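Usage

Read records sequentially. Each one opens with the input sequence:
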Amino acid sequence: MENSLDRSERLQKAMARLGIASRRHAEILISQGSVKVNGIVVTQLGTKVYPEDVIEVSESTYSAVSITDSIYIMLNKPVGIISSVTDPHRRKTVIDLINQDIKTRVYPVGRLDYDTSGLLLLTNDGELTHRLTHPRYGVEKVYHVWIKEDLLQAAVNTLRTGVTLEDGRTAPAKLRKLCNKSHGHDRECTVYEIVIHEGRNRQVRRMFEQVGYPVIRLQRIAFGPLRLDPAMKAGDYRYLKPREIAALKKAVEVI
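and closes with the structure output:
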């Protein structure tokens, strides 16, 4: 490990890296006087901390030392952002959302299409990325799907048993109705939860379109054992907590 003189970082960034809070929420906690460093209340944004420092929030203490040489980031991807490192059309990418703080090169694990929001994992751990995206491990992805009306039972049965698409039949999916909600301009929609373990391009949208129900809104809320942090707004990101990293590795048998 590098010495502490080379490893200082802003307090709010350290809190996000340690999984204490998203960077935006960390800034609020600091401004409110809810954060201590080495027993002293800190309210100045941009305060630097070092690996030997101790951060205290709500009676919980954390060492500022790095958790791991690898980086694991949870991003709540907004609609209108590309899930890639670069884009030839110069559209904004997920890397643009984090590069103000994350200097190490990371890559998205799988993709969420331009019009889909929600949980996206970014990391520089190549072995974990390979296993999380390999069909052998069958990592489940959970989505919330907004459509105009309730599904007919025939459509439900097709989604649960497999939908025939132009690139082949999908594997059976888990499906359940969540609720009816308003979605802009007082339009009432029905929300379903679907669980798949394949990674085809725009798969969920194509499945619903094939059974006659175009998707109005789509959000991924879970990827394997990792669930989207409900405190994170669209565009927020944070480092994974040690237990989250361990759960991901266990799910795909990474030692």
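Summary fields computed downstream for this record:
- The chain has seven helices and 17 strands.
- The longest strand covers residues 174-182.
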